[in-house]
Amino acid sequence: MRIDLRESSQRENLVADVLSKFGKIDVLVNNAGLETEGAYAELSWPAIRDTIEVNLIAPMALARLVLPEMLKRKEGHIVNIASIAGKSGAPYAATYSGTKAGLAEWTRALRLELAGTGVHFSTIFPGYVREVGMFAKFGMRSPWIVGSCAPSQVAKAVVNAVEKGRVERIINSCPLRYSFMLNELSPTIGDWLMRFSGVVDFQRRKVGK
Predict the structure, then answer these.
(1) Annotated catalytic, 128?
(2) What is the rounded (10 degree) CA torsion for 204, 39, 33, 89?
(3) pTM, two decimal places
(4) Which residues contact 39 (CB under 8 A, 6 or more apart)?
């Protein structure tokens, strides 16, 4: 069943259709996303709005639709696919970064709010995904200090999150958690590291700037 996640009626029809066929929803994986890269001031507002609708509002809406039934049964798992851009904003992907950061913090808030209800929440933070998807279409290698990941690693992380109850996973070939911690301690140093590592220039070249 193909739907347009920007449309609330289609999101409602999707959940209703699945419930009518299977009677319950055990796992919801919010994986759909739009990147909409480019200089923010040059992007059209419809493109920005669509990115927010698909990346952030749709997951929130779908979760709101499945939660009552999950809470009633006292079981269920919602997995949200964020991005390392949600940990450290990527230039020329400002809207994307904002939606992924919002998705991550919304997930954490719900995890705390609904602790003990039997419904679990996990957030996956992939790096640049090779082979297929939004990053792969550029045909570029990511900066060495940032690394990348394979689609199979992301899929495995989702399964692992559901089976073992992992609340957060960063999926990447290079360890990035310490750089994220540094960014939290000193945003100025974090900004410098983004420039020094070549990430800012890489993002600029990706969009032809």
Answers:
(1) no
(2) 70
(3) 0.87
(4) 92, 207, 209
Domains and CATH numbers, the chain: 8-206 (3.40.50.720)
d(CA 206, CA 209): 8
- pLDDT reading at 29 higher than 90: yes
Distance (Å, whole) CA 116 – CA 11 = 27
Mean pLDDT for the stretch of residues 192-202: 82
3-state SS string over the chain?
Answer: CCCCCCCHHHHHHHHHHHHHHHCCCCEEEECCCCCCCCCHHHCCHHHHHHHHHHHHHHHHHHHHHHHHHHHHHCCEEEEEECCHHHCCCCCCCHHHHHHHHHHHHHHHHHHHHCCCCCEEEEEEEECCECCCCCCHHHCCCCCCCCCCECHHHHHHHHHHHHHHCCCEEEECCCCCHHHHHHHHHCHHHHHHHHHHCCHHHHHHHHCCC
With a CB cutoff of 8 Å and minimum separation 6, the contacts of 36 are 43, 47, 48, 50, 51, 93, 95, 96
Catalytic residue among 40, 92, 96, 128: 96
Distance CA 193, CA 171 (A): 20
Token representation of residue 68: 């009552």
- 83-124 pLDDT, tens digit per residue, is 998 988 889 999 999 999 999 999 999 999 999 999 999 999
Inter-helix orientation angle 199-206/187-196, to 10°: 60
